[in-house]
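**Fold tokens**
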Amino acid sequence: MTSTLRFLQIFALGTWVGSIIYLSFVVAPGVFGILSNRDQAGNIVGYSLTRLHLIGLIGALVYLIAGLGLAKSAKWPVTPAAILVIAMLALTLISEHAVRPQMAALRTEMVSVDATPPENPLRVRFDRLHRVSVQLEGATLLLGIAALFFTARSFRS
């Protein structure tokens, strides 16, 4: 049972971190480089980001439930790996439920982000939210790498 729970933790966290890497370094640059319409590329990345966030939610739940099954003490939720996964989950929820809806509303209001001048207040706000979104994903990725390290390290005992 212990091996299965450990596998589930590594699989869940590895899938989540790997998905962030794939979206950030393959999908997003690829669609923006291939498609001539940047608005369509943004829609594809937005669609993919929503699915990534779902992977993150499921991954966090699997990781935390498996961790509870492995816990040797009531202090497990305050271990470094668990705290990092909880922080990743919080950042993912903020991105999906606070930042992305605002970006989607602005995208609808502008009709075309690419055709909206950079000094337009809607575009300024959209660009700011985009930076926040990228920062949230970057932070989630870094936390995930650290969580993988602490998780792997915890298995030596």
About this structure: The chain is about 85% helix and 0% strand. The radius of gyration is 18 Å. Residues 18 and 141 are 9 Å apart (CA to CA).
